[in-house]
Design a protein that fits this description.
The structure holds 2 protein chains of 2 kinds. By secondary structure, chain A is an alpha/beta fold. Chain A is built from 9 helices and 10 strands. In chain A, helix 5 packs across helix 6. Chain A is globular. By secondary structure, chain B is mainly α. Chain B contains 16 helices and no strands. The relative contact order of chain B is 0.18. The chains are: A alpha/beta, B mainly alpha. At the A-B interface, helix 2 of A face helix 1, helix 10 and helix 11 of B.
Amino acid sequence: MTTIPVLEARGLTRSFGNVRALDGADFDVHAGEVVALIGDNGAGKSTLVKALSGNLSLDSGQILFAGGEVDLGSPSQASSLGIETVYQDLALAPHLNAAQNMFLGREIPKPGLQGRLGFMDNKAMRAKSREAFDDLGATVRSLSDPVGSMSGGQKQAIAIARAVAWAKGVIFLDEPTAALGVVQTKNVLETIRRVRDKGVGVVFISHSMPHVIDVADRVQVLRLGRRVATYEAKKTSVEELVGAMTGALDGAHS
Amino acid sequence: MTTTEAVARTAGTAKETLRTHSLRQALQVQSFQILLVLLVVFLAFAALAPEVFPTWGNVRQIIQNVSILGVLGIGMTFVIVTSGIDLSIGSNLVFSGVVAAKAMQAMGDSGWGTAIVGIVVAVGCGLGWGLLNGVLIAKAKVPPLIVTLGTLGGALGLAQVITGGVDIREVPAVLQDTIGYGNVPGTTLPTISLIAMVLILIFGTVLHRTRFGLYTFAVGSNEESARRVGVKVDRQLISIYALSGGLAGVAGILSLSQYGTTAIAGQSATNLNVIAAVVIGGTSLFGGVGTIFGTVVGLFIPAVLQNGFVIVGIQPFWQQVAVGAVLVLAVYVDQRRRAAAARGHSGKGDGTKKLFGRRTT
């Protein structure tokens, strides 16, 4: 891939007290590509994702979107660029229903004066949510029950559907399969491929090396807050990835 | 989120079996359970004193007594839905009333011009305290319990400083005659109750139908998730505490009109009575759940008990005992429900932390 990356990070640093969570980290993802981001616990994966989704301010470094430098000061700035994130803890509001979660922060107003007074078009939002869930083959049984009463798989489906529906540029998936069963995991991996085929850049964070090799096009390895290696997923192996993560062997930069 | 809504929805899109499901749902909803309790209490007193209790004159009296608390209950419901608390409303009411009374006293006459100045001053004072609460909670990240405990003392103390601790008893006659004791022209409905009802309808609609209301629930449900999707959480919290304060200002001028005095010492338990009513009405102290309707029902329970005990000749002090028991029972039921919900999945039970220690980000 020789095109300009849709999202690129150069030399990001961020410290929390004495801990350097990011220490000159680089990262890049192209449109229509799945990049797996791996690293041991504390390697800085979550910090990097937070920085790239507008949830964390940086000490230094550059973020480029489609080649132009951007300032991702807030989550809404990131989402206005089409950058969406599915967090490890899903970040749904448990007392709201699926449709409300789907459109939280992006409600469809009713037409005319009612809309300006803050009334929402619940019917349209429910219909579009239903559409989005069906699109992913997600089984969300009820659009009106609070999501807090749903199973982990259903919550996952809602969180992913929400991100996919709004992601036009890049989607980050932080450990999307960690709490899932075999079938649901397969669905998520299938979804990842489908989103990639729509031309969105997918960043997939996982501890599961087989899933990484299965679904990713490229694998980037973080260690101690820095990118230490990039691999073509097809040409690498679990041993090599684990080696690079732990620092047991030095990866070849590409 | 709102119980009535949820029921209506499932019933509307009913796939045959859903109808019984939604009926059961309605019965599980606390504001309906408490409405049943209220009905039972009402019928019991009606049976014990059929000549006096179930008359319009008596019911009117109860409604009038509840009106000011109803205005305060609106703001408190918003606040508690965000998993916050506002202890300062009683003091805020007194402060707003005192400053308004001072302003009206200074103007001298007792016409509508003076009254309107008084209303504006009272609402402005209330808003001011509410904004102060909101900014300290949202921006300075001081827990709401502490912030509003501080402004509780601050507002009451300043009210006493302004008056030297002596109640002001000069209130424009127009306020007392129309708002305080007056009825809606052509009816026997107290004006003060109509004002409360209108406010309840407006803000009930805001809470349950608009984006502002949805964000209120979202902040109480999972503040972090709301922030991540771009909800301006700080601004939402500030607006909600300002709303609570502004309504306390409204209650201040209503109280002034009704009682004809600033009643500085008379509001020391108002905050707790309102909080109890909100909680009895099914609004969860842990945030994310609640209805204005429930709060209104929750306010009527103590009022009906008080009124009924007096009429049937039981010492009215028993009212406090009964309300205490209902309150604990209501929270027990709420806890059971939460525990049952949490058992099914890992849950995001963010529990008690919010009341006492406000967020980490």
